[in-house]
Amino acid sequence: MMLVLLSATTLALVAGAPWVLPAAAGEKNLQPPENIEVYITDDNFTLKWNSRIETVENVTFSAVYQTPEVDDWMKLPGCQHIVVNKCHFSPLSSDVYEEVKLQIRAEKGNSSSWSEVYSFIPFEEAQIGPPKVHLEAEDKAITIHISPGTVDNVMWSLDVSAFTYSLVMWKNSSNVEERIETVHPGDKIYKLSPETTYCLKVRAKLLLYNKNGSYSPVYCINTTAENKLPPPENLEISADNENYILKWDYAYVNATFQVQWFHGFLKIIRGTNLHKWQQIPNCEHIKTTYCIFPRKRLSKGIYYLRVQASNGNSTSFWSEEKKLNTGIYIVIPPPVISMKSINDSLRVYASAAEGSVKQPYPLIYEIIFWENSSNVERKFLKEKNDFTIDNLQPLTVYCVKGRAHFVGEQLNKSSILSNTVCEKTKPGNSYKIWAIAGICIAGVFILFTMYVMKTLLRCFNYVFFPSLKPPCNIDKYLSEQPLKNLLLLTSEEQIERCFIIENTNTNTIMKETNQIDEDHKKYNSQTSQDSGNYSNEDESESKTSEELQQDFV
What we know:
Layout: H1 2-16, H2 24-27, E1 34-41, E2 44-50, E3 60-67, E4 70-75, E5 86-89, E6 100-108, E7 110-111, E8 118-120, H3 122-125, E9 126-127, E10 132-137, E11 142-147, E12 164-171, E13 179-183, E14 188-189, E15 197-206, E16 211-212, E17 219-222, E18 233-239, E19 243-249, E20 256-263, E21 278-286, E22 290-294, E23 302-311, E24 314-315, E25 322-325, E26 336-342, E27 345-351, E28 364-371, E29 377-382, E30 386-389, E31 397-407, E32 412-414, E33 421-424, H4 428-464, H5 472-475, H6 483-489, H7 513-528, H8 534-552
Parallel strand pairs: 1-9
Antiparallel strand pairs: 1-2, 2-5, 3-4, 3-6, 6-7, 6-8, 10-11, 11-14, 12-13, 12-15, 15-16, 15-17, 18-19, 19-22, 20-21, 20-23, 23-24, 23-25, 26-27, 27-30, 28-29, 28-31, 31-32, 31-33
Protein name: Interferon alpha/beta receptor 1
Family: Belongs to the type II cytokine receptor family.
Pfam families: Interfer-bind (PF09294), Tissue_fac (PF01108)
């Protein structure tokens, strides 16, 4: 019983111990791979490495990978138990911008340790492979159809529309590369010779990421014999405010024409788009060498136009395609200028002509401005269609005309000059200021004139009509009633009273002073009752003088 339990315990310990690779001594002979590299062309991945045990027979290699989405190491499909130093695999994820990690080990019964981790981002390592090319020949042109080297390409799925293709072409009879052009799928190579063999090769470019692909194999094709009915030539496009006009040259008479258009963005979409050409209405089976169609039929963008000639049962090849950029062929009508006088300024309005097509582009207005009586012009640019010209002369006629400009990165267009509009400025604030100043000056002048006249009148009156007021040393002896009032009391005549006052001896006796005052008052009383004739006055004066002398004696 004890023996059974011991055996069971020993078995359990062996089973619970961690698993160890057998033949540890053999592991030392297996070194992990080195110098791991990944090469990517389109969706084709190639993993390469070096190994020190290449002379050992029956050694295989296996690889594992890890992505940010999965923490565990996964077996790399296509790279398990490989007997050579490289393997091929496909994209591990649709996200070609995420990092991928790889490890490799050698195997021969036992396994080596894993190599160092090699990490890479697929899109950064990827190279563009050679495109597929299909050619179609005409007498003087070759149509080239280009498609990516891998169908449903994962690596370039987001950038397929950004590819451009570089073509190198030469005559087969000469090894000199004659032409190098940038083409799109479905483009035609024109100006070739009939019944001549041409060879070409194409490679793709992704300019946004500075990636240049590999050239395709060389393709050769023979152009056909010259067609009896040549295609139209020298296509030219012009436009007016409402229509596009397509013109071309054609030497043969009695021919009819048809015109088709093709949207430019379809050229960069994968696949053939030859069936996307559309007929332009009113430009089918026409006998004129021009076609007129409305601008509103084509929205803003890039288009291609082509023309074909027919004569009975004969039909020409299509002409060279003419590129139509609606932005280049915009027609800017002249603006309608109007003005309004505001004081000493002019308010200018520039608007579109009635019935014209509304422009989807911002316009700049060039204004030419001059005084009507002068030929000197002033020019300035305005981004707004409503602006004011200030600091003008009042009551002056000014004239304005202008044109509209569109300035873009690849296009500059201008309208013709508008009609001339003239307007007379109003008096303005400066005129009012001068008027007020003139009134003030006139008022000051009138006041000054009145003052001068009053002064002259006073001088005149002083000279010719002097004042009747007596001197102040006499006036103080007069009665309280003014002399002029006394003179007005009598109606018979006005008399002037005169007094002579003599200086007396200062050595008078103070006691006689009172007597003199009384006599003087008496004299005044008598004088005020006098009739006013000169005889009485003289007598009174004599008497008074005698009395005064006696008193002083």
